[in-house]
Amino acid sequence: MQRKIITTADGSKTIQLKGWNEQYHSIHGAVQESYHVFIKHGLNLFRNQEIHILEIGFGTGLNALITFLEASKLGLKVTYKGVEAYPVTPGELAQLNYIAELKAEAYQSHFEQMHKSAWESNISISDGFDLYKEQHDFREIDALDTFDIVYFDAFGARVQPELWTENVFGIMFRALKTGGILVTYSAKGSVRRAMQASGFTVERLPGPPGKREMLRATKP
pTM value? Predict the structure, then answer.
């Protein structure tokens, strides 16, 4: 499928899959969406502890980068697992402008390390941030009671409805610790019902720019 780099409304770039008319991030602002969904309503609930994060759709690494930048402010030591079946290419990465948009030039080498590091290997990005990337379909995950947060950032249910089912959220439910949370940009009724059927307690929250609502699910 043809892919191209586009600029979103907040100036940050993302990758568009032209055949699906689908993007890796919101066209209303890639960086804004990441902060709103995954940091404000996910990471910011935790303070001064060690946490494990699972990202569904490692993609461009934007969520990992922002989590890395924010974790130390919250006193967090993070073990971050990113699952991605189809990694972005070096050529695509070279066109992304996240470091400049985040004014994070001091961390350029850390972002590069996130992408250049080997798959299926534990990599220390800093004293407080370990990264482990896995290249496979996330429906193959078999973790139990492991993660504090799931960043569910798969392509939308409009183009890949099979990724937003009760079975998939059952995998996420089992992977989370009791009290753990899953956050996603989606607010579809079918997604909320699939989460609830999997055992989650689900709440609607105000969405990022361009979306009225988003969902946060908690494992009781």
Answer: 0.96
Q: Domain range for residue 110?
A: 29-218
Given a cut of 80, is residue 198 above it in pLDDT?
yes
Q: Strands of the chain (E only): list them.
A: 3-7, 13-17, 22-23, 50-56, 77-83, 122-126, 129-134, 147-152, 176-184, 201-206, 213-218
Residue 67 tokens, joined:
């989590």
CA angle 121/116/113 to nearest 5° reads 90
Q: What is the pLDDT of residue 44?
A: 98
DSSP H or E stretch at residue 189:
helix 189-197
Whether 173 maps to a domain, the answer reads yes
How many other C-beta atoms lie within 10 A of the C-beta of residue 67?
Answer: 24
**31-86 residue pLDDT tens:** 999 999 999 999 999 999 999 999 999 999 999 999 999 999 999 999 999 999 99
Report the CATH number at residue 213: 3.40.50.150
10 falls within a domain: no
Q: Count of domains in the chain?
A: 1
